Amino acid sequence: MLNEAKVKKYRWHDNRHTFCSSLVQAGKSLKVVQELAGHRDIKMTAPVRPSRSAIQTRAIRRCFQDELNRRSF
């Protein structure tokens, strides 16, 4: 499957990064992510935080979505 997708470098550990990033993007706290990832120290989890621009983009989308939901077409 990786060859078909033309993925050159793949490490199984990359799944952990994806898992943690997805949790943070879904709004889970770093403490929850730390516990689910099995990190002993929150410093291991902290780099997973999404960038400020990613947070701002989600906030803007939510605002627009809320507004669209209020309007009836």
Could you walk me through the main structural features you see in this protein, from its secondary elements to its overall organization?
With 73 residues, the chain is mostly helical. The protein has one domain. It is 59% helix and 0% strand. The protein is built from four helices and no strands. Helix 1 runs antiparallel to helix 2 (30-37). The longest helix has 19 residues, at 52-70. The radius of gyration is 17 Å and the shape is flat.
How many DSSP-defined strands? 0
Count of alpha and pi helical runs:
4
Runs in which pLDDT lies below 50 for 5 or more consecutive residues are none
The fraction of residues assigned to DSSP E strands is: under 5%
What does the overall shape look like?
flat
